[in-house]
Amino acid sequence: MSPVIHVLEHSTPYLAFVLTLTGLIVGSFLNVVIHRLPIMMNREWQQQSEAIIYPDREPEPQPTYNLVLPRSACTSCGHKIKPWENIPVISYLLLRGRCSVCQTAISWRYPAIEILSAIITLVIGLTYGPTLSTVAFCLFGWSLLALTMIDYDTQLLPDDMTLPLLWAGLIINSFGLVVPLDQALWGAVAGYLSLWSVYWLFKLITGKEGMGHGDFKLLAALGAWLGWMKLPLIVLLSSLAGTIVALILIISKLQERSKPIPFGPYLAIAGFIALLWGDHLIDFYLSNML
Fold this sequence. Notes:
mainly alpha
């Protein structure tokens, strides 16, 4: 056994420290993904559209823009963020939430996402210990956090994230990490087809689209990770949470009735709950309600 693993197994404070630090660092990267991935998608769509509309036109060279380049900068003055200004949470506090050059306020969301990432990592790590399951489930939780925020901002659930998440669920369950492979396979199929059926039924009745196709793929990914037996719980929890939040927003006049509300965040939250406490919730229901 590795000495590091031995220490992590026998020292809860040290394990908690490593998990928290890892979660904060990953959360800083997730901020980049949440901000840049939708922009990258829009640029790609624009390039594809221009290639179709103007097939004979030579595309103009575009500056490099991905998850690594260019360096992060202040959106107001363009100041390139220095390494010491990019330390998760700490830099935000030291800078008092403002750019070091132009003093423009920095969104509180950046440290909030870093802290949420740390909490997710800590909860998973303390539940499963220093194991490969913790690594896999942290990747699952981090992906759901990024998808939640992207869908909240843009009402998009990128295929670049949902499809790899789906395949990862099937792969890890080929080793039986969460459920047997057959349950994961049918979880993916049932997850996709269930929301796909609701989408088309709603469209046939109303002539409107009730949800995006990304929701189908996200629920398919959750089914691939957690198996088909957890899908009713995920759908119930996400629908309940979505209905309550929508009513609160509408009553408080923070949301117009005609404006669509993204469903992905509620699916993601329900999927995370189902991963950690799904079996307990199902057992509680069966023992007390039936």
